[in-house]
């Protein structure tokens, strides 16, 4: 992979660092950083999106080969990149290394549109100094999680007549791809195909008369929880039945994570049934223009750091 920058000397230090594109071999070190930061990331999901865009994640590496930070702007479509994973190991924070990996990612984006989710207190920084002037006003991205077990018996499995829910198979994929496009507005076939093949994950699809009317995935996070996402459905009852099936398919986990959009009231009701609290709200920001998606069908976001919906 090409080196993006070299011979970086952090503040108050003499050691040199490089910024370069991340490789699949770097994943264990990245996940170590994310665990240090108590973030519920999924290694297989990051691995899949790195396959989609091999130059989309940049890392800071010490002379000794230690990864000390990372950031990504992943190509989701020809004119859409999505940013996240911005992190520096706690012992290196405040050294100025973060800006170098950020700049490498922005070089990857070039003149194209990009989006990110700003944590509380950082909206003004991204808007006024980092080139993300457009603030989403229709919704917030909500982080919901608990380290307690959730009980799928609190959810209904009653679905509309004619709908069937099945574990995803290859023959479901074309209908699932069409449905995903109808929700988010651009083609994600490669990413979704990889999503359905990831280790420690389960994907179910809701079908009616040969058409997909919803689908969902649950994955094991680096902190041992089950994380649902994406979860899309035409009908809240279908979303609830999918969610019940997903939780039942991964019983031996420590905790539950499901990230939502604030304007999907039905998603909030499902989390209330499960007793999963809202932990944090993030502000969606854009570089050039807002994205349009059918958020009433988005019950759980795909990934907070790698994809907009």
Automatic annotation (TrEMBL):
Q: Which InterPro entries match?
A: Acyl/Acetyltrans_Enzymes, Acyl_CoA_acyltransferase, GNAT_dom, YitH/HolE_GNAT
Q: Which GO terms describe its molecular function?
A: acyltransferase activity, transferring groups other than amino-acyl groups
Which segments constitute the N-acetyltransferase domain?
A: 17-152
> What Pfam families does the record point to?
Acetyltransf_1, Acetyltransf_18
Any idea what this protein is called?
N-acetyltransferase domain-containing protein
Q: Which organism is it from?
A: Argiope bruennichi (Wasp spider)
């Amino acid at each position: 992979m090409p080196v993006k920058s070299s011979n970086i000397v952090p503040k108050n230090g003499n050691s040199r660092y490089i910024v370069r594109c991340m490789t699949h071999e770097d994943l264990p070190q990245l996940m170590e950083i994310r665990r240090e930061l108590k973030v519920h990331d999924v290694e297989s999901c990051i691995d899949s999106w790195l396959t989609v865009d091999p130059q989309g994640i940049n890392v800071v590496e010490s002379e000794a080969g230690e990864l000390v930070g990372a950031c990504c702007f992943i190509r989701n479509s020809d004119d859409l990149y999505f940013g996240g994973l911005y992190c520096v190991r706690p012992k290196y924070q405040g050294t100025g290394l973060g800006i170098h990996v950020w700049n490498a990612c922005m070089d990857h984006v070039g003149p194209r549109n990009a989006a990110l989710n700003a944590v509380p207190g950082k909206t003004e920084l991204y808007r006024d100094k980092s080139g993300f002037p457009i603030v989403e006003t229709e919704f917030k991205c909500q982080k919901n999680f608990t380290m307690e077990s959730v009980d799928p018996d609190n959810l209904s499995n009653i679905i509309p007549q004619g709908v069937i829910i099945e574990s995803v198979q290859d023959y479901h994929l074309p209908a699932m791809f069409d449905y995903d496009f109808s929700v988010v507005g651009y083609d994600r076939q490669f990413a979704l195909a990889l999503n359905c093949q990831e280790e420690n994950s389960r994907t179910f699809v809701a079908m009616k008369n040969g058409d997909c009317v919803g689908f969902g995935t649950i994955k094991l996070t680096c902190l041992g929880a089950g994380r649902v996402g994406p979860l899309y459905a035409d009908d809240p009852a279908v979303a609830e039945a999918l969610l019940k099936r997903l939780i039942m398919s991964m019983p031996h986990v420590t905790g539950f994570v499901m990230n939502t959009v604030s304007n999907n009231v039905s998603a909030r009701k499902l989390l209330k049934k499960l007793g999963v609290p809202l932990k944090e709200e993030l502000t969606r920001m854009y570089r050039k223009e807002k994205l349009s998606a059918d958020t009433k069908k988005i019950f759980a976001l795909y990934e907070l750091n790698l994809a907009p919906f």
